[in-house]
Specification:
The protein has 137 residues and is an alpha/beta fold. The protein has one domain (17-127). 40% of the residues lie in helices and 17% in strands. The chain has a 4-stranded parallel beta sheet, with helices on both faces. It is globular, with a radius of gyration of 14 Å.
Amino acid sequence: MSWKPKIVAFFCKWCAGAAAETAGVMRLRYDPSVTPVIVPCTGRVTPSMILSAFLNGADGVLIGGCHTPNDCHYVAGNFKAFKRVQLVKKLLEEIGVEPERLRLEWISATEAPKLVRVVNEFTEEIRKLGPLGGKRA
């Protein structure tokens, strides 16, 4: 049996999450390796949530927030997410995990095709990196 990556995607309810719903309505397909988790805002995604996803078997974590940092429904959520992602990427690098396993994207509610493209690109990148820890099942 070939290895399939496990990816957790934290999507902002207002934008990336809405784009995921629109993708479904439009019957656009993205890789089923991705498990979407809808959050009120990317600013609510803490470093411990990201690390917990990795510790519980995720090979990659994708975070999708409102269209631009200035468009956050909660004003500063995207800025918090950006800072936290940078922090966690540094931490991952320090412990020998590729920082590319964590990705942050700004995706509008109207950008379902972009969401699908980003998800599929990220899944392919994780597939190339292989499983976290290096063992293929």
